[in-house]
Amino acid sequence: MNTCKGLGIWKRAAVAAALLLATTFAAKAERIVLGATADEADAVVGCLYPMAGRAAIYGADSVQGIRLALQDIAEGRITGHPGPRLRVVLDDDLSKASYGLRLAEDFIDKDHANFLCGMVSSGVAHVVSDLAKRRSVILVGTDHASSRLSIEAGHPHYFRVSNDSWTSNAAGARYLRDIRAKQPWRRIAILNPDYDYGHVSRDDLLAAMDGLGLDYEVVAELWPKLYEPDYSAYIQALKDAKPDIVVTALWGGDFLAFLKQAQAVDLFSQMRIANFDTGANYDVLVQLGANPPPGLILSARHHNNWPETPANRRFVEAFHAMTGRYPTYAAEGAYSGIVAIAKAVDKVGNATDDKALITALENMSLALPEDPEGFASTIDPVTHQILQAQAVGTPVPNDQFPPAKVMLGNIHAYSAEDLRPPPELVRKRRAAARHPADAVPVQ
User: Fold this and answer.
1) CA 225 → CA 126, 222, 249, distances in Å?
2) One domain, residues 157 and 170
3) Residue 440: inside a domain, yes or no?
4) For the whole model, what pTM was predicted?
5) What is the DSSP letter of 25?
6) Is position 436 within any domain?
7) Element (DSSP H or E) covering residue 42
8) Do 421 and 350 lie in a common domain?
9) Positive or negative CA dihedral for 64, 20, 57, 118?
C-alpha cells in the first residue's frame, strides 16, 4: 500500500467527519431539560451522557434521540394515545464514575427523579447502578454495554435497552463460525480497552466461541487504556503475534485512532480486524471514507441502512430532519430508553410505584427502529437485558447517508433468541459473583 495515499484518505475523511462532530462540545456542556415542566410532569427522568471529548457525539445524539422519543410519545405513536408527560433532565458525566455518581444523586435529591437513564461508559454505569439499587430508583441503561451489569451485578431496579457485550460477541462468534469455510482462520488476538467493558467483552467472546465449539488459539491479549493516543506498541505486538483476526472492543475515537495508525503501517494486509459491538457505528463509517482498510468485519447496535423497514427509515429520516445529520447508534438507544419508561408509566399510571414499574418493564415488548420486520424487542425478565437481533458484515460503497461513503453490507443477521445468554452461563456467573472463592469457570 502507498502509505501517503492511505493517510490522505484519512485526512479527507476527517474533514468530512467534522460536519458530523460539529454538535459536540469543547468543554463541559450545560445541563439540558426537555419535555414537561416540573409542575406538569407525570415522571422525571435524569439522564447522564458524555458531552465533551472523544465520546461527545454520543451524548449529542442521545439528546436528539430523546427529543424524538418525547415527540412520538406526545403524538400517541408509543402508547396509542398521547402518553405520559415526561420531564427529562440531562447532564454531562464527563465519562467519570465519581462525577456521574454525584450527578445521579442530584437528580434524585434535587430534581426528584423517578428514573435514571443513559450512560456510555460502563464504569460510570456500574456506580450509578449501585446507587439505583441503594435508593430503589429504576435505572434504564441506553448505551453502555458491559454484560456484568445485567448478569453479575443485575438487580431489580436495573434494565438495559441496547445490545450488551454478550449480544454483540455472540453475534460475532456466529459470524466467525459462518465465514470459516471460505475464509479459514484459527489464530485470534484481543485488543480491548483496559477497563470493565473491555475485559468482559473478551470473556463474552471466548465464552460464545466455546459454546459454538469453535477451534481457535488466542495468540495475544492487549489492553490499551481508555482514550489512548498512541497505539504503535500494540500494533507492533500484533505484527509479532501474527493472528489471522484481531477482535477489538475499542470504540468511538479510540477505534478510529487505532485504525488510522494501523493503516499507516499496512497492518491490514497482514490480518483482519473485527469489531462486533461498535465498529459499524455511523461516526466510524464516516471516517472510513470511500476506501476503507481491507478485511474489516463490523457491527453496531443500530444501523441507518438495516433493517430496511418503514420504522427504521422513519427514525433515521426524522433524526436527519431534526439535526441535518445521520445518527450514531446512541440516538436509537436513548430513544428506546425513554420509550420504555413512557410505556411503563402509562401502564402503571403512577411513576412512584417502583414495584409495579419493574413488573411492567419485565417482559415488555418494544417495537423499535432496529427491529427486523415481524419482530419486536423484548426485555428478558431474568437479566433485564433487552433481546434484539444483530447484523454483522463488512463496509461496502453506499452514498445514501452522506458524508459517509460506505455502510454495512454483506450482512449476516442473527436472531435475538440465538443471542440470548444461555441460562446456565447466567447462573454460573451470578453464583461466582456471590461466592468468588467457589467459582467454577464458565465453559
Assistant:
1) 18, 10, 12
2) no
3) no
4) 0.91
5) B
6) no
7) none
8) no
9) positive
Burial of 349 (C-beta count, 10 Å sphere; 0-12/13-18/19+): exposed
Other CB atoms within a 10 A radius of the CB of residue 379 amount to 22
Tens of pLDDT, residues 6-54: 444 454 444 444 444 444 444 566 899 999 999 999 999 999 999 988 8
What's residue 54's pLDDT? 80
State the residue range of the domain holding 129. Answer: 20-163+307-387
Q: How far apart are CA 388 and CA 385, in angstroms?
A: 9
Kindly state whether residues 239 and 297 are assigned to the same domain: yes
pLDDT at 15: 41
Q: CA–CA distance from 118 to each of 9, 280, 383 (Å)?
A: 34, 21, 18
CATH number for position 105: 3.40.50.2300
Q: Which three cell numbers stand for residue 137?
A: 430508583
Residues contacting residue 33 through CB under 8 Å, at least 6 positions apart: 87, 88, 89, 90
Written as nine digits, the cell of 380 is: 428478558
Q: Are residues 31 and 131 in the same domain?
A: yes
User: What confidence score (pLDDT) does residue 120 get?
Assistant: 94
- Residues present in the chain in total: 443
**Which residues of the chain are under the pLDDT cut of 50?**
1-9, 11-26, 438-443
Nearest to 329 by CA among 365, 283, 375, 379: 283
- In a domain, residue 126? The reply is yes
Q: How do 296-299 and 365-366 pair as beta strands?
A: unpaired
Regarding whether 204 and 340 lie in a shared domain, the answer is no
d(CA 89, CA 106): 11
